[in-house]
Amino acid sequence: MRILFLCVANSARSQMAEGLARAILPASVEVASAGSAPSVLNPLAVEALSETGIDIAHHRAKPVEAVSPQTADLVVTLCADEVCPVIPGRVRRLHWPITDPAAANDIAAFRTARDQIKARIEVLARLLDLPAGPVASEFHASIRVRDLAASTRFYGWLLNSWPKEWTHRYAIFIRADLGLNFVLMVADDNVLHHDTLYHLGIALPDKAAVIDAYHRALAFGAHVEKPPRTTWRGTPLHELWLTDPDGTLIEVYARLTDPELAAMPADQAPDYLVPGTE
């Protein structure tokens, strides 16, 4: 993969991005930077990166034409208030508007720009080898609320829709055009800070897709909270529970078909879908 970082002068932001990307991204990724009106490498950019152990003192400002932009797989522009260089053709593009630290001519501004660019590249590094995930048809979210009636009114306004159904315990909003299944749950005296978000989820087409998502999750390295199983109590579902890196619960689910519902056991005991995961 070849990534090209662009700004106007190729003196600070794109140069720091090039240096940081070389340090953070895999060696198999080719990195370059350039500018639409190149000037000279800013010594404060060199200093800011040297504080993190990265040496770009040998870098030189280059025009866009010098780095064969037509061969780039990804072009990242870092201009904020200026007019960014434009690379014609079909290429994946990202825009990271970073304020030009040269305007302040202060090492603190360069450190701020450096850290903002570094954080973006760290995210990019985790996306470059992203494997295919489950193909979802619906996004689900559940939150806890203090006053179910007041919250139902608010979200009814926000989503421009009455809930599909409600009880004294919950209200369910369905927006098929958004692929959204949104549930308000009574708080049950939970402190509403991190507990406000109850869980997130995605809907899959069938039981086989839930089982496939389980194996994809294992290969990806996701934490499996509960292995795939068919549950009958409440809303019958084929479901898999994961947690994200911060511990938020993620429900991966598929609704049961009529024949599957007809096979519900008398004791409604869950049916584990992958042998050995009971």
Description of the structure:
With 278 residues, the chain is an alpha/beta fold. 26% of the residues lie in helices and 27% in strands. The strands form two sheets. Strands 6-7-8-5-9-12-11-10-13 form a nine-stranded mixed β-sheet, with helices on one face. A four-stranded parallel β-sheet has the order 2-1-3-4, covered by helices on one side. Strand 1 (2-7), helix 1 and strand 2 (30-35) form a beta-alpha-beta unit. Helix 1 (13-24) packs across helix 3 (107-127) and helix 2 (43-50) packs across helix 3 (107-127). The radius of gyration is 25 Å and the shape is elongated.
Structure in a nutshell:
The chain has 278 residues and is α/β, with parallel strands linked by helices. The protein has helices spanning 13-24, 43-50, 107-127, 148-158, 207-220, 258-262; strands at residues 2-7, 30-35, 74-77, 92-95, 138-145, 165-166, 170-175, 180-186, 197-203, 223-231, 237-243, 249-255, 271-272. It has a nine-stranded mixed sheet with strand order 6-7-8-5-9-12-11-10-13, covered by helices on one side. Strands 2-1-3-4 form a four-stranded parallel sheet, with helices on one face.
Index terms:
278 residues, alpha/beta, 9-stranded mixed sheet, 4-stranded parallel sheet, 6 helices, 27% strand
